[in-house]
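== Polypeptide entry ==
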Amino acid sequence: MRSMRKFFGNLMREARLHSKISLRDLAQTVGCSSSLLSGIENGYRSSPKDKKQIIRIAEALKIPVDDAVVAAKRDRERRDLSFFRKAFISDDRLAECYCSAREAFPDGELRILFREAFEHIVRSKIIKNSDIKPKWGDVNGITKGK
């Protein structure tokens, strides 16, 4: 089973259905709740952050561990993008800042810039959940690097 460009929940569901394993049986095997696994499969919950849990699920479903880890990472990155989408919709200044930055930076640099900004926000706990609207910096302060 090839897992390229798949999210963890999709990969897990395909392997589970192919193996004819119920959510309840998988949950007992890996030591978590069936509701957690169902949430992951249906995209309501993010993939596990704990690599050991990802490995237990992968082994139980006979998914190559490397594929499962990559898919779980991709799933979490998709959630990061969802966060940005919500932030852009709720804050016109942030959206304007993004549009200005798009004009000033090549796409690759822009992705890196916003990824670093997101990681800084998470590390500094400026935003604890998406309901908190931070005061973003002046949109006119964006300039192209050296």
Summary: Residues 52 and 58 are 10 Å apart (CA to CA). The chain has a mean pLDDT of 76. Helices lie at 8-19, 23-30, 34-41, 51-61, 65-90, 92-104, 107-124. DSSP finds seven helices and no strands in the chain.
